[in-house]
């Protein structure tokens, strides 16, 4: 029988199966149908030896793809292909099977451990803040001689995983050109698509839906419509954060104005299994440094202590408060400042055992924090966005970040919006540097009188 394909789907089907595929376009480009078509071809080519696994982060996310497969496979096989809804598994007349699975945590991986698949497909991989689970799943790729194993991933720009996806698959080579990906040691092809190339949908109506979904975020709209991964998506800060405006070269010491050092304090977001982030923050009295003027009350993040694992921005090093305090004090000594400032409200909560709070532990170790009023989360983001946007304006304060604050620059530009609360940051992403920076802004907002009178 005849199955009509879009140009994008035809191109995806033409890529040799020895090459892995990243389907990475905008919304509405036909990626789900492309995945189903690739699975169908694998079933037809390899019969009973075809073992296919399709995963999404949640079971709820499987529903849309299930409908796609019901539509496609009914056209091809009629009732000969059977779907077991309780097992989320298709069984085909030639003995092949396709399993629709859920993979959200390492505990979920236990369902697949020890099993073999010839083709793995993962959809909406932008929902994964790190690639770790998908990398582990790859160990299940095994096939008899003569059958190529393959991974196919699909994602839209945006979401917690935008940064690692763009780094691995989008900016390695041009679209439809093979490139070597070092982690998997495989050849890949980046296959972009957009809704404009999908003639099987009401394109004008779909665009209207996309525009109504993000009326105040032109960067996100551009990412969805054009499939543009160069937009720092899902960038909550995309419209206000620019390297050319907000980044400053590293300073060697706290500057002085009229013989007096700038006011300084710490901004801290606590974590152990998650990263902990601490910034040395300086407040400008209205001063010019190396030819650049910083308006009065501007904030500069001068130094950073981030306890994230390498290439795993959402995983901490497991440091205890005493170890973390030693490093914070050492950082403060390098700058000649006192180890005190503002921190996450949660560290001031006392346990029922009488052991005190995390803030009490810091206090005993010689690091002194005040609450940053975390409850006013949206207000804090608004202040931070305004300060970032106003950087470079000589008449109002702005926010600046030293280029040596690596964790900030690796994570904050790529943080997405919460899909259910678009005025908030998506907390599934590595938002720890952003939180610490927000606390710095909230300290200014709540203690402005103190700062203008000389800070601590």
**What is the makeup of the main sheet?**
9 strands, mixed
Lateral arrangement of strands in the main beta sheet: 3-4-5-2-6-7-1-9-8
CATH-defined architecture of the largest domain:
3-Layer(aba) Sandwich
Q: What value does the average pLDDT take? A: 86
Helices, by number, come to 15
N→C terminal distance: 77 Å
Rg over CA atoms: 25 Å
Q: Given the C-alpha coordinates, what overall shape results?
A: elongated
Q: Report low-confidence residues grouped into runs of 5 or more.
A: 445-456
Class per helix and strand makeup: alpha/beta
Oligomer: single chain
Any idea how many domains? Answer: 2
Number of β-strand runs: 24
CATH class categorisation of the largest domain: Alpha Beta
Strand-residue fraction? 15-25%
- Briefly note the CATH topology name of the largest domain: Rossmann fold
Question: Helices and strands in order, then pairings?
Answer:
Elements: H1 7-14, E1 20-23, H2 31-46, E2 51-56, H3 62-77, E3 82-84, E4 89-91, E5 97-102, H4 106-109, E6 119-122, H5 132-137, E7 150-154, H6 162-170, E8 179-181, E9 186-191, H7 203-213, H8 218-226, H9 243-246, E10 247-248, E11 256-257, E12 260-261, E13 263-269, E14 277-283, E15 287-289, E16 292-294, E17 299-306, E18 308-309, E19 312-316, H10 321-335, E20 340-343, H11 358-364, E21 368-371, H12 377-389, E22 399-402, H13 406-411, E23 417-418, E24 421-425, H14 432-446, H15 448-453
Parallel strand pairs: 1-7, 1-9, 2-5, 2-6, 6-7, 10-22, 13-20, 17-22, 20-21
Antiparallel strand pairs: 3-4, 4-5, 8-9, 11-12, 13-14, 14-17, 15-16, 18-19, 23-24
Helix pairs in contact: 1-2, 2-3, 12-14
């Amino acid at each position: 029988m005849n199955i009509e394909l879009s140009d994008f789907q035809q191109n995806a089907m033409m890529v040799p199966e020895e090459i892995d595929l990243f389907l990475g376009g905008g919304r509405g480009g036909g990626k789900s149908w492309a995945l189903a078509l690739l699975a169908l071809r694998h079933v037809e080519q390899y019969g009973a030896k075809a073992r296919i696994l399709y995963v999404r982060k949640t079971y709820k996310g499987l529903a849309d793809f299930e409908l796609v497969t019901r539509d496609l496979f009914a056209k091809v096989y009629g009732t000969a292909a059977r779907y077991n809804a309780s097992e989320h598994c298709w069984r085909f007349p030639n003995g092949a099977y396709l399993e629709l699975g859920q993979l959200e945590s390492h505990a979920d991986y236990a369902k697949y451990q020890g099993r073999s698949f010839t083709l793995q497909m993962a959809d909406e991989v932008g929902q994964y803040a790190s690639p770790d689970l998908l990398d582990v799943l790859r160990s299940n790729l095994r096939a008899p001689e003569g059958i190529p194993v393959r991974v196919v991933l699909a994602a839209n720009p945006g979401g917690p995983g935008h940064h690692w996806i763009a780094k691995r698959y989008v900016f390695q080579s041009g679209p439809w050109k093979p490139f070597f990906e070092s982690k998997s040691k495989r050849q890949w092809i980046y296959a972009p698509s957009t809704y404009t190339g999908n003639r099987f949908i009401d394109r004008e109506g779909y665009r209207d839906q996309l525009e109504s979904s993000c009326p105040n975020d032109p960067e996100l709209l551009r990412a969805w419509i054009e499939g543009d991964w160069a937009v720092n998506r899902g960038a909550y800060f995309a419209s206000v954060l620019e390297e050319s405006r907000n980044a400053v070269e590293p300073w060697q010491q706290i500057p002085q104005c009229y013989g007096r050092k700038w006011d300084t304090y710490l901004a801290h977001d606590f974590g152990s299994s998650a990263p902990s982030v601490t910034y040395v923050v300086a407040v400008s009295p209205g001063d010019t440094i190396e030819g650049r003027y910083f308006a009065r009350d501007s904030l500069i993040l001068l130094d950073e202590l981030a306890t994230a694992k390498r290439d795993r921005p959402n995983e901490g090093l497991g440091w205890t408060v005493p170890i973390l305090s030693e490093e914070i004090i050492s950082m403060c000594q390098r700058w000649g400042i006192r180890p005190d400032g503002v921190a996450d409200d949660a560290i001031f909560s006392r346990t029922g055992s009488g052991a005190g709070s995390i803030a009490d532990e810091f206090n005993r170790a010689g690091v002194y924090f005040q609450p940053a009023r975390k409850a006013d989360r949206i207000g804090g983001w608004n202040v931070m966005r305004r300060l970032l946007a106003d950087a470079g304006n000589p008449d109002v304060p702005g926010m600046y970040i030293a280029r040596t604050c690596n964790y900030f620059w690796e994570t904050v530009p790529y943080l997405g919006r919460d899909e259910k609360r678009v005025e908030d940051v998506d907390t599934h992403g590595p938002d720890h540097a952003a939180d610490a920076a927000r606390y710095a802004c909230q300290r200014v907002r709540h203690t402005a009188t103190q700062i203008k009178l000389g800070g601590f």
